[in-house]
Amino acid sequence: MEPAIKILIYIHAFFGGIGLMTGIGSILVKKGNALHKRLGKLFSIGMLTSCIISLFICWMPNHQNIFLFLIGLFTIYLVISGNRATAFKHKTKANFTDKLISGSTLFFSAIMIAIGFYCQLKNIQNGILFLFFGGFGLYMSIKDFMFFKNVSEMKKKWLFKHIGKMTGALIASVTAFIVAGIGLGNLIAWITPSIFGTLYIVYWNRKTTPKADKMVKA
Fold first, then answer.
1. What angle do CA 160, 81, 179 make, to 5 degrees?
2. 0.90 cut: is pTM over it?
3. Rounded-to-integer distance, Cα 180 and Cα 185, Å
4. Tell me, what DSSP letter sits at residue 181?
5. CB of 126 closer than 8 Å to CB of 66
6. How far apart are alpha carbons 143 and 214 in whole angstroms?
7. CA spacing 20 to 30 A to 197: which of 3, 20, 147, 191?
8. Which domain holds residue 203?
């Protein structure tokens, strides 16, 4: 059984590496051009494949890990939701699939937070990570439903939502490389990529908002 699991881990790492490289490439090239779109597609394929494989690995003998399982689900949400955000450039209403994706994330984020509080009460090491990432997931999914409720008024936010979600998925890839690839599993290694990634998202939010306002006025 273990040899088969190792093969899955190698495949998981391979596609994760594709996601990491193409993700970094996509933020370096000009947004919206053909190369950016190609890299974005490869990034999505790499991340989704890697995460789906990880969901199975997390339940296999001697590899059970509820935290990584939930992080895998969260990353899948970021990739899918980030890609679907581009549809709101023209779409005026969220459909059932949009709400199902965000609703599922809301549910699993609540589970992460509950586990996080339990870990804090029992003094379980790194339990704060459940609260940290669960809080992010809860915040993002609630913001999704706020967006869905007023799509026509908040339509200009589609670009920010796309950048924010895809950057979030890249943060997950970078974090996985640091923790699993390099072997740094401390709290700082888990949280630092999220801090820098959040600053990048804030930067693009400020940069894109004026452009969106001009488009709405036009």
1. 90
2. no
3. 8
4. I
5. no
6. 23
7. 147
8. 2-217
- Domain count for the chain: 1
pLDDT of residue 218: 44
What burial letters (b/e) apply to 26-35, b meaning 16+ CB within 10 Å?
A: bbeeeeeeee
* Cα–Cα distance for residue pair 17/50, rounded to 1 Å: 9
Structure tokens at 49: 């494949």
pLDDT tens, position by position, 37-71 = 999 999 999 999 999 999 999 999 999 999 999 99
